[in-house]
Amino acid sequence: MSGWRQLKENGFQRIVDISLIIPVKDEEESITELAVEAIQVMQNTPWSWECLWIDDGSVDHTQYKLETISRNDPHHRFLCLSQNFGQSAALHTGFKYARGKILVTLDGDGQNDPGEIPMLVNTLLDEGADMVNGWRPERMDTFFRKISSRIANGFRNWITHDRIRDVGCSLRAFHHECVENIPLFAGMHRFLPTLARISGYTRIIDIPVHHRPRKHGVTKYGIQNRLWVGLGDTFAVRWMKSRLVFPVIREPFGFEQGRKNNE
Question: What is the distance between the terminal CA atoms of the chain, rounded to a whole angstrom?
């Protein structure tokens, strides 16, 4: 069996408690430090875990750094996309191949604090939630990024009738099944809580998290048109909210017997 075929067949097996999913684009200066932080945090938790990095078409030495990280610690795995498909595609790929029962997403630039991960996961479990979103009371970004995010966030909530405080915060924890059926489109990552709610996972909580200044480089996922594109995507998500259907099976019959007969 080829390695790629085996990867596809094993992609949905839940064999660890937590999968950290980190999309990166040209973050060679940040990822080693972030990987060390993740190890320090997760090794002091009771959960089995993995860290799945998605290299979204980097053209610097990101892949080389990920190879080194993965060789030094088997908790770390990575996938390289053939080109830059965008943050939504990178996250969706991570959802597909993550092996954790619970998924935790964070940015690869080091601004999300891995030290918040245990709090997110414990809140998810203790509160019986489907998803726990971080929100940044003190956001360490430029004035333009803060204002554009605030406008877009308010508009999204108004149009979709949602109540997410900071949908732009990548730091969140949720059960794997919350994202199994969400559609992939450019900009999907801006609507993850709403899309999870559309799929029937309605127990969604916001909690404050620490946000750090960027130490290395500049953002690789540009903001040139993010405000206007995000506003346009909002109408598409509102349509999805009224039209998408996710059938739930009440009781299967005959499938186990059929599997035995085929063995």
Answer: 19
What was the pLDDT predicted at 164? 66
182 CB-near residues (< 8 Å, 6+ apart): 92, 95, 188, 192, 195, 196, 198, 199
Domain residues of the chain, as ranges? 10-245
> Does 141 score more than 60 pLDDT?
no
Query: What CATH number labels 10-245?
Result: 3.90.550.10
Contact (CB, 8 A) for 69 and 36: no
Q: What angle do CA 177, 93, 6 make, to 5 degrees?
A: 90
- Confidence bin at 193 (pLDDT 50/70/90): confident
> Which pair of tokens denotes residue 42?
């997760």
Q: pLDDT band for position 235 (50/70/90)?
A: low
